[in-house]
Design a protein that fits this description.
By secondary structure, the protein is mostly helical. It contains two helices and no strands. The protein starts with a helix and ends with a helix.
């Protein structure tokens, strides 16, 4: 192999590594957000009945968002 070919190869590898790093960071962020939402849900469920229905709506929306995030993560891992 000639030197320029080797340089090209290492450049590609670096780009792939950077992409993987970015995806991992994103996943960590999203998992943190999921954890925060779960703790919020469990702590807020003990509040008064008038606000409880609002919380269940929020929780339902949050679980839907979590599922979306999980789907995205699976797609990223498959690529």
């Amino acid at each position: 192999m000639r030197a320029p070919e080797i340089a090209l190869l290492s450049e590609k590898q670096q780009q792939q590594q950077q992409q993987q790093k970015q995806q991992q960071q994103q996943q960590q962020k999203q998992q943190m957000q999921m954890k925060q939402r779960q703790t919020y849900r469990s702590s807020s469920s003990s509040s008064s009945s008038s606000s409880r229905c609002r919380h269940t709506e929020e929780a339902a929306a949050a679980t839907a968002a979590d599922k979306d995030i999980q789907k995205q993560q699976q797609q990223q891992q498959q690529q």
